[in-house]
Amino acid sequence: MMTGMKNTPQQTFAICLDQVLMHEGGYTNDPNDPGGETNFGICKRQYPHLDIARLTEDQAASIYERDYWRKIRGDELPPPLAMVVFDAAVNQGVPKASKMLQECLGIEADGVIGPGTLKVIEKHKVDALVRDFMARRASHYASIVTKNPASSKFLFGWYRRCFAVHQAAMDLLE
Q1: How far is Cα 154 from Cα 121, in angstroms, rounded to an integer?
Q2: Residues 6 or more apart whose Cβ sits within 8 Å of residue 33
Q3: What is the Cα Rg of the chain in Å?
Q4: Using one digit for the tens of pLDDT, what is the confidence trace for 86-139?
Q5: What are the residue ranges of helices labelled H in 1-107?
């Protein structure tokens, strides 16, 4: 973040993308990961036509901007909220991330961030929304483990990611 200056939407996306890539890492093919073969967080299940093993970071960035950032309307969200919703969209899916945000706002959770959702956001304190969103996110991870105990090996990492993303989002408060 540039000190004393407001970030442009492109700068905010770059900061948020760096945070995602830090957590997603490089190539993996864990049999317990429901996404299957994954690189930079882009998974074969979601993108069956891609050569995941040869995916470049620039290609991943383009996918994230097109299929995640735009769908959560990241350029229109306050930067701290954009960071947590974007990271959740990558890790838990755009509809789930959008619904969690709408639940925090107390509005109908249709899974699409539209003009109505954006209008309601203006009536809330950003730091409180970020905190509530992250609490919902952590709760969702716990419910995954309850339903599928084999996924418990991922729980510590998911929680660690939640804490790190929350801190990075708070660093974006203006």
Answers
A1: 31
A2: 43
A3: 16
A4: 999 999 999 999 999 999 999 999 999 999 999 999 999 999 999 999 999 999
A5: 9-24, 57-64, 79-92, 94-105
Other residues' Cβ atoms within 10 Å of the Cβ of residue 26: 11
Q: How confident is the model at residue 5 (pLDDT cuts 50, 70, 90)?
A: low
How far is it, in rounded angstroms, from Cα 92 to Cα 140? 9
Range of the domain at 102: 9-171
As beta bridge partners, residue 21 has none
The tokens for 133 are 């969103």
**Residue that has been written with the tokens 């919703």 in this structure:** 85
- In the DSSP assignment, the letter for residue 74 is G
17 domain-assigned? yes
Which two three-digit tokens encode residue 168? 């990075």
Phi, psi of 42 (to 5 degrees): -90, 125
- Average pLDDT score, the chain: 93
| Contacts within 8 Å (CB) and 24+ apart, 145-153 | 150/32, 151/32, 153/32
Residues 46-69: pLDDT tens digits? 999 999 999 999 999 999 999 999
Is 1 a domain residue? no
Domain count, the chain: 1
